Amino acid sequence: MSLHQNLKTLFRSQNEYFSKLSKGQSLYKLSRWGENDDAMYYEFPSRDNLKMNEKRLVMIEFESLINYLINKNITLFQRNLFEQYCPISNRDGGCGYCICIRIFDKANVGTYLGYGKGYKIINQNNLNNLIN
Fold it and tell me: How far apart are CA 99 and CA 21, in angstroms?
């Protein structure tokens, strides 16, 4: 199965919510799967709560990132890797980094270490299962 299919299995509901990395902030919500583009779209309220902002995580970029983490046996995922391997997603907003972390959490890949500390990858098999 592809990453896209595996994520659709992992997130069965399009009403799935993701907590932000900072406590007390509004949640991200999985809004839809791209049809003409291979992306996962999520939304969150604007700062004034008057509208919803929609952003995307591009699957080909996310898969490239995961392959890098696996092939290089990286055990600490940090924002700079997201920025390097997911430039389109990052251009949409750095919140895609949080979405990656929450996907890894849902797949039991590791644990978030806290703001600025990154994400510790503990289970390479579960990481690998996302793309295979």
Answer: 9
Looking at the DSSP bridge assignments, the partners of residue 121 are: 110
Cα-trace Rg, the chain: 14
Q: Compute the distance between CA of residue 16 and CA of residue 81 in angstroms, rounded to an integer.
A: 25
Please classify residue 28 by burial: count the beta carbons closer than 10 Å to its beta carbon, then call 0-12 exposed, 13-18 middle and 19+ buried: buried
pLDDT digit string (tens) for 53-103? Answer: 999 999 999 999 999 999 999 999 999 999 999 999 999 888 999 999 999
Name the DSSP letter for residue 14.
Answer: T
Q: In terms of C-beta density within 10 A (0-12 exposed, 13-18 middle, 19 or more buried), how is residue 29 classed? A: middle
Q: Give pLDDT, residue 86.
A: 98
CA distance 98 to 21: 6
Torsion of CA 107, 3, 36, 46, to 10 degrees: 20
Task: Give the span between the Cα atoms of 36 and 79, in whole angstroms.
Answer: 27
Name the amino acid, one letter, at 55: K
- CB atoms closer than 10 angstroms to residue 61: 22
